[in-house]
Design a protein that fits this description.
The chain is elongated and about 50 Å long. It is mainly β.
């Protein structure tokens, strides 16, 4: 029996960099047996997320971009309970540790982080798009449902191609290394 709150969570620690190097670390948790799951297409579960790269500060706001590699959503449970894929990106901090907060003295507001609706397609001839939708958002500081399968739908395998992540780096930001932990999760229920 599946618990409705059990799912798969994938977190990637990424660094928005101002004049320094890039760090990308991926964390993954295994899904409960029979639950919808994420697959990076090579048997792993975490879709790779690139870093934002270096940002040259010049006294004006700058646009930094990162990408999430395409991944699969697989629901072979037969339950037709629906599922949703969420994206969460907290404030960028110049600290260390898993949440980037240890020793942090400066931040970049993550409410300007945006992404258009992912492109979702059936991965095989048996999968239907009926009841499956995607959405784009600005501000992922609370988890946003970027792909949703309604109850009664979502069985099969779907290819998800996320759009580019865009972050506005303010003109007043301090020259530091900034990081956050981006989390991609899938849970049962719409």
């Amino acid at each position: 029996m599946r618990h409705p709150d059990v799912g798969q969570t994938l977190s990637t620690r990424i660094v928005a960099v101002v004049a320094a190097s890039i760090l990308v670390t991926v964390f993954a948790a295994a899904p409960a047996t029979g639950d919808p799951r994420l697959d990076d297409g090579s048997g792993g579960s975490a879709p790779p997320i690139s870093g934002f790269g270096n940002v040259a500060l010049n006294g004006t706001p700058q646009l930094a971009t990162a990408s999430i590699a395409p991944f699969l959503v697989i629901d072979d449970s037969g339950a037709l309970g629906g599922w949703n894929v969420t994206l969460l990106a907290p404030t960028f901090r110049n600290g260390t540790g898993a949440d980037c907060a240890t020793g942090s003295t400066a931040t970049i507001d993550a409410t300007t982080l945006s992404m258009g609706a992912p492109v979702v397609r059936p991965a095989d001839g048996l999968t239907s798009m009926l009841g499956v939708t995607s959405a784009g958002f600005t501000d992922f500081t609370t988890a946003r449902k970027i792909v949703v399968a309604d109850v009664g739908h979502g069985d099969g395998t779907y290819t998800v191609a996320p759009q580019i992540l865009k972050l506005t780096v303010p003109a007043s930001v301090y020259a530091e290394n900034y990081c956050t932990e981006i989390t991609v999760s899938i849970t049962t229920g719409p």
